[in-house]
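Sample 1 of the test manifest.
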Amino acid sequence: MPVRDYIRERFFPHLWCPGCGHGIVMNALIRAVESLGLSKNEIVMVSGIGCSARISGYLDFHTLHTIHGRALAFATGVKLGLPGLNILVPMGDGDALAIGGNHFIHAARRNIEITAIIMNNRIYGMTGGQFSPLSGYGTRATTAPYTNIDHAFDVVTLSLAAGATFVARTTTYHVQQMIDFFKKAILHEGFSVVEVLSQCPTYFGRKNKMGSAAEMMAYFRDHTTPIGSKAKKENPDLIERGIFVHKELPEYCREYDKVIERAMGKGK
Amino acid sequence: MKKNVRFVQGNEACVEGALYAGLDFFAGYPITPSTEIAEHLAYRLPQKGGKFIQMEDEIASMCAIVGASLTGHKVMTATSGPGFSLMQEALGYAVMAEIPCVVVDVQRGGPSTGLPTSVSQGDVNQARWGTHGDHAVIAMTASNHQDVFLMTVEAFNLAETYRTPVILLFDEVVGHMRERLVIPEEGEIPLVERLRTSVPEGVDYHPYLPREDGRLPMSDFGGGHRYNVTGLFHDMWGFPSTNPGVVKGLLRHLLDKLNNNTNRIARYKEYFVNDAQVLLISYGASARSALHVVRNRRPRGERVGLLELQTLWPFPVDVVRDLAKAPEVVLVVEMNMGQVLQAVKLAVDDPEKVFLANRFDGSLITPTDIRNILRVIQGKGI
């Protein structure tokens, strides 16, 4: 199916700024879904609030555009309500890990089969450039005019500690890898997290003198490296890309089916 | 036929009513004095193939039931004041996106953590105005377990009829007290099922286009119609819109669909109202004491009557105005600082004859409390 068949043209033009990385993520996501041969009727995309969250409106799935930070909580209801559905939850860094941090770790802990995509541009774009929990120490934002003293989460270690059973990281520069990770995450029977470093040239880039969108993507190319590479040993500051964990553990909805069996066996 | 008689807490009566109505998805978080609802449903729901999930907080609980409702389930959550505060944002989402769901608030003393194990009716206005923005909402209550059961069934029916959240405002006394409950036979109380669209798969379906009768047929997620659901102002396809006409039309629709049906939604009980010189207006646990006063004073020749409200919002203005016309004194009996009192004063023709008998100390208002206040109003002294 051509890419345009996954798009709701009625919704366009989209609201992302020129150079924004989120369109690349959307494109990669469509290609992953297309190559897996999933029916659009089997996919529910649940999103919260922010630039990233608007992706749900643009795509021709069942789409639930909810409230800030709560997408995974809504998604949990959808998934447990109808476990046969594939649930995709695109979130921004603030949406997922500031206001939504609690829902994120608990969804991971339950190991419910939901694919969480964290489009990490290290800034609140929709509201105009405030620092997020992923901006990092020493960055600048409209709410950190004297530089940021908040330390950043590491999405990967946070996800692992919370119990996610598939955790991967890539960037908008590495599109083929992103498609591959999305495919694996969607097929994974458990809670999957894909962090995508995405550029916001309008706010994070401008505030932190990162240059144009292309220069920000070149930064992703030059400052990331495959997991366990020789380059990482030589330069520990490099950010690792790859699949950090991919393991099988009992999935929440399948476990609940067993609860039903036990309850029914017990009778009244 | 042998009746199905149970001796239960009010919270269990709510559970029985919900299951009778077809509840098959519950998400919640433990909080006194509502926890028994979650406990019983954790046990009962999987026995009928339904789903129970304990979420990380009340915010997530409210969100989860909205998500599950979209997959076609009848859904509910239950909480008390502090948790009800946390649910307000997603409750507003359910209002905006028109998602059928039932939210139980077993009231305790507030504000804040307040009185976790004591009774109050302080959330009446929160039920009305807790979530931000202009909106309409349905809130119902009950004073005894048979009515808790019935109002719970009604709540599910109204949620489906109007595609709206319905709030059940119980209180600690009704929730925890034990009394007799006769569970009706199947079919004894009519049930309203989800109205699903007849638009065939592949044909443009408008999730927010009302039929002639005002109802909006739904289509379950996972089915043949893919549409957008959002908390933003939206058009008939569910797509966000800032068009002033669309915005005005949607807000008008959200208010009108309930407010124009206030009399249809109104549930209430009348006791000796026809010749009443003193009309008590009460609801929930307070109405038990008010009814005691009526039954106690009538044999003594005092013309006291009771209007027991079971629908609090939209406020049954016509019912209250009509019944308050003849009596010389209208006495609102409640356990807060006068939340329904204000609504009654707005509804009646002469608000100066409306008085308040209340308690707000965590104790159940007693018949003696009501009687004493009535004597003061009547200039009889205590």
